[in-house]
Amino acid sequence: MICFLSIVRYPAGKGFAGFLSMALFRLPLIICKPVSFYKLMGCGKNGSFDIQPDWRQWALLTVHPNPDKPDTRTLFEKQTPQFIQRWWKFFGVEQFTIVLEPIEGHGTWDHQHCFGPLPKQTDYSGKICILTRATIRVNRLTHFWKAVDPVANTMAAVDGFISSVGIGEVPFIKQATFSIWENRNAMKAFAYQMKEHQSVIQKTHRENWYSEEMFVRFKPLNSWGSVNGLDISKRNK
Predict the structure, then answer these.
(1) What is the CA radius of gyration of the chain?
(2) C-alpha triplet 99, 104, 110: angle, nearest 5°
(3) N or C: lower Cβ tally within 10 Å for the chain?
(4) Is residue 188 one of the residues assigned to a domain?
(5) Number of domain units in the chain
(6) Which pTM value belongs to this model?
(7) Whole domain around residue 110: which residue ranges?
(8) What is the CATH number of the domain that holds 144?
(9) Is 144 helix (H, G, I), strand (E, B) or coil?
(10) What digits encode the pLDDT tens for the residues 82-102?
(11) What secondary structure does DSSP assign to 3-52, as a single string?
C-alpha cells in the first residue's frame, strides 16, 4: 500500500477554483478503482496549523492498496484521475506531492482503518513522516485552538524537524497535521519530552477533546514540486 499527499497552491485570484474543486473532485475519486480511500482538505493560513483558512492552498490524500511497480511519479500520473490533473494544470497551481508508505499507527478516520492493519511499532529508523488527525468535540473547540500556537512554535524549533502542514476536512472541527522529521528520535524528542506537547496530550485525554483520532507514521518514498517556492520535504532555513 502507498499513499500520495498533494499540496497545491492556486495563483492569486484563483482560490475560488480550489474551493470549487472540493466538490468537483469527489466523483472522479469515487469512481477511480485504484483509490481505496481519499480525503479532500483545506489548509491553514500559508499551510500552517492555523484557525484561519488559506483559500489558495488545498490538499488531496489518496490511498492505493495495490499499486503497480513503475516509478512512483509514473504511478501518480497513472492512478490519479485525469480530471484532477488537468484541472490543476489549467489553473496553473504550484504542486508538491509526497509518496508515502504507511508503516505504523493506530486509530480510525471516519471509522475506517484506511491505511490497513498497522503495527504500533517497527524497527524503521530513517526519515519519517507523521499524520495526526482528530475530530474535535464542539464543546472543546476553544480549548483545542488555544493550545495550538504554543505547540506549533515549539515543534518548529526542535532539532530534526523538517516541516509541517496544517490540513483539515471541516474548518475548526476535523483537523490534521502532517509533519516530516529527520528520524524517529527527533520526532520522539518532541512528542514525549517537550513540556508544551506533553501538556496538550494530557489535556486531550483528561478533558476528552476528541470524538475520533488517528496517528500514523510513514516512510517517505519520493517527492517532487514545491509550495510557496519551497520543497517541504527539506528543511528550509
Answers:
(1) 17
(2) 80
(3) C
(4) yes
(5) 1
(6) 0.90
(7) 2-225
(8) 3.30.70.100
(9) helix
(10) 999 999 999 999 999 999 999
(11) EEEEEEEPPTT-HHHHHHHHHHTHHHHHT-TT-SEEEEEEEEGGGSS-SS
